Structure formats: structure tokens, C-alpha cells
Inverse folding.
């Protein structure tokens, strides 16, 4: 089975990769094709009917090779989350794979546990001994990729959740 190792802009940049092993796999952005290394050359991945590798699995494989965030990267992640934050009062931090669901509420209460959304999210993850490996900002959500103690990779989605809170009474 090929080992996904990353994305390259062009076929030329892909060919300049060093330290590749047979069965390493790269996505070429320009051609939008996957390539597999045979030990000497890169060849387009032959997709046989019925073979389907979900993007989530490719991302998990890729992120597993990333280094753990150091404190500087964690601080930058907190800033990125705070810059991304919308005007919502509620946010959901969700990882469906491990059935993790936490609602975060913006409040001006003096007993708030965290000063901002970025610190709340990173502290919740770090308190569970997760190693933060990657992040991606999307239009409607923020992805944070972690590795747990067993070296499994998971994606936590952070998104506005005002629509999920219903007032009654």
C-alpha cells in the first residue's frame, strides 16, 4: 500500500524530492494526480475500479509525519483561532471519531475559565495529552489535527454553534 508523503506544486518539484522510498505517494497540484515512487521514478498512480482512498485517510497519513507543535506554534495557533473567530456566542469543538463534543460559550463573566477561544481550544486538547500536529482554516470551520498517546491521528473541527443552542421557556 502506498505511503502518502505530501503535496507538490508541479511534477518537477515532485522529482526534486530526496529520501523517497518505494511506494511513497505524492499529490501533484498542477495535474491533480497522485504519483507513486518506484525507487527511481515517479509514476501516475493507477486507480483500479473500486479502490477509494478517502481524503480524510490521506490527511491522517500525511499529518502523522508532521512534527508536534512547540510552544511558539501553539501560541500562533491560538492567535489564528482568535483571528478566525466569528461573532458567534457558541462554538463546538468536535471529533466524531472519538465521540468528543464540547460546546464553548463566549462570556464576559469574570469567572470565565479561559481568556479567549484560542487558549480554551488548545488547553482542552493539551490537557488530554494530545500532540497538536497541524491546522487548517476553512470558511466555515477550523481544523486542528492531533496525535494521541497511541500515535493515532484525529481531526478536531471547531465551528460556530449558535444554531445548535435553542432557547426556550
Amino acid at each position: 500500500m502506498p505511503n502518502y508523503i505530501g503535496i507538490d506544486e508541479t511534477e518537477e518539484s515532485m522529482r526534486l524530492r530526496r529520501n523517497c522510498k518505494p511506494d511513497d505517494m505524492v499529490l501533484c497540484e498542477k495535474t491533480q494526480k497522485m504519483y507513486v515512487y518506484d525507487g527511481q521514478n515517479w509514476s501516475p498512480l493507477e486507480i483500479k475500479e473500486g479502490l477509494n482512498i478517502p481524503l480524510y485517510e490521506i490527511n491522517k497519513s500525511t499529518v502523522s509525519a508532521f512534527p508536534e507543535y512547540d510552544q511558539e506554534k501553539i501560541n500562533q495557533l491560538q492567535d489564528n483561532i482568535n483571528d478566525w473567530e466569528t461573532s458567534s456566542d457558541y462554538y463546538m469543538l468536535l471529533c466524531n471519531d472519538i465521540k468528543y463534543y464540547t460546546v464553548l460559550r463566549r462570556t464576559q463573566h469574570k469567572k470565565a475559565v479561559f481568556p479567549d477561544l484560542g487558549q480554551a481550544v488548545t488547553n482542552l486538547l493539551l490537557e488530554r495529552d494530545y500532540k497538536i500536529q497541524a491546522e487548517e482554516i476553512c470558511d466555515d470551520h477550523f481544523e486542528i489535527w492531533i496525535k494521541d498517546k497511541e500515535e493515532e491521528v484525529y481531526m478536531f473541527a471547531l465551528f460556530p454553534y449558535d444554531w445548535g443552542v435553542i432557547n426556550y421557556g
User: Anything to note?
Assistant: The chain has four helices and nine strands. The chain has two domains: 3-53, 71-164. The longest strand covers residues 153-160.
